[in-house]
Design goal:
The chain is α+β, with helices and mostly antiparallel strands. 24% of the residues lie in helices and 34% in strands. The longest helix is centred in the middle third of the chain and has 17 residues. The protein starts with a strand and ends in a 16-residue tail after the last helix.
């Protein structure tokens, strides 16, 4: 359900540029993704969206937040206090 999601959208000149979407409760939230409107990663925009997400989760009483991130996001997460707890590999098979 969309009611269970928190979505932050970054706008420039009244147009959406990027978004972060997360869900959770009971002290645990997870970012399920970050997307940009044009497919281009913008570090400053991602940092602002992530900071807004962290602040909202703190306000909601969260104790933990997780995020399975990409290479370009890792150093930003580290700067904001996230700790890497594992390296995961994802496989796909076209059916």
């Amino acid at each position: 359900m969309i009611d269970d999601w928190i979505i932050f959208v970054y706008n420039q000149a009244d147009s959406p540029v990027a978004a972060v979407f997360l869900t959770g409760d009971d002290g645990y939230f997870e970012i399920y993704g970050a997307e940009s409107a044009d497919g281009v990663f913008r570090e400053d925009v991602f940092r602002e969206l992530l900071a807004a997400s962290l602040n909202e989760c703190k306000r909601l009483g969260a104790e933990y937040m997780t995020y399975f991130c990409g290479e370009e996001e890792k150093h930003i997460l580290a700067k904001l206090g996230f700790k890497c707890i594992g390296q995961y590999v994802l496989y796909i098979k076209v059916l």
